[in-house]
Amino acid sequence: MNRRPRNEMLAALVFASLVIPALALSVLPAPDGNHTALHRAAEEGDASAARAIMDAMPEYERRSALDRLDRQGMTPLGYAARLGSVSLVRLFVESGASVDLCDPHGRWTPLMEACDQQHADVVLYLLEHGANPNAVNHDGRSPLVLALNGGVFMQYGPKGDRNATIEALLRKGATLSSLIAAYDALRATLGNQAAKIESLEAENARLRDLAKKPAPEASKP
Predict the structure, then answer these.
(1) Is the sign of the CA dihedral 42, 46, 50, 53 positive or negative?
(2) Residue 107 domain boundaries
C-alpha cells in the first residue's frame, strides 16, 4: 500500500493547524457582526497579527477581507487610519485595500478618520496613494473640515498635528470650497433651527454688550 512520506504528512498537519484557523477567523463574521479578526488587529494596532492573518489567506479572499465593512461602517484600513498607525495603513494599502471605501450611510473614508484625529503622516500617505481630499460625508464635512475641528470627542492613537494635517491636505488638492459646502450642508440639516441659533447668538451678543457697560450710579435721596 502506498503511503505519503512522513514529512509530507507532518507538513499537511502543520498547515491545517495553523493556516486554516487563521483563515476562518479573518473572513468569517465575529459574533458582533462583520467585525473580523482583521478588523480587531487593526483596531488594536497589531501589525504582526494583521500580517499573519493576511498571509494565511489566498489573494482573492485577502482583498475581500480588506474591504469588508463592519457594523460601524469601517474597514480594517479605516481603523488603522483612525489609530494613526502608518505601518498598518501601508500594509493594507500595499495589499490592495480600497483607500476611499466607506459605509454608504455615514460615508466616512479612511482619510476622514485620519483627518479627524489629525494624524498627518497617515493623511499624507493616503493622499499619495489616491485618497480623495474633497470627499464629503453624510453631514457635509470634508477631510479639511474634519482636520480643522478634529479630535473633539475622542482621541485615538498618538496626539495629532493639526497644522501638518491641514498643510498636507492643501498641498494634495483639498479645496477651500469644501468649507463652504460643509457650512451649507449644516444649514440645510438644521433647517428651521438655524434661525433659532442666530436669534440666540444675537441675544447673547446683546447681553455681553450690556455686561460691559458700567452699572448706573445709585440716585441720591
Answers:
(1) negative
(2) 6-209
